[in-house]
Amino acid sequence: MSTPILHITERSLWEEARTRGTYERSTRGRTLQQEGFIHCSTRAQLPKVADFLYGSYDGPDQLVVLVIDPALLGVPLKYEAPEPGAEEFPHIYGPIPVEAVVAVEPWA
Fold it and tell me: I want to staple 35 with a disulfide (CB 3.0 to 4.6 A). Which of 26, 41, 56, 103 is the partner?
């Protein structure tokens, strides 16, 4: 497996994706179609990203982290900065096949 990338989401959204076969949420409250790509992070970036997106989140759904093997994506993955000189984050340009999610971890 190549170095995994991560995506934090609500468990119900992941469960819906499992029945469809693909995950298509970009970030909290935004779809892949609205954003153009799916926001992800490295393991080191995850705490900051989770706090930014879900710091005020109080449920009702459990938050989970999708552990994604980039080699299984079948769609483009690019590391991009939100602005010149900023930290680069992994962005997936297409739906994530459920087979590319090699683990699902709870987020506390």
Answer: 26
Both tokens of 15, joined, read 């469960």
12 φψ region: left (φ > 0), alpha (ψ -120 to 50), beta (else): alpha
How far apart (Å, rounded) are the C-alpha atoms in residues 46 and 63?
13
- Tens digit of each residue's pLDDT (9 = 90 or more) over 51-97: 988 888 887 889 999 999 999 999 999 999 988 999 999 999 999 99
* Residue 56 burial class via C-beta count within 10 angstroms: exposed 0-12, middle 13-18, buried 19 and up: exposed
pTM: predicted TM-score of the whole model, two decimal places: 0.94
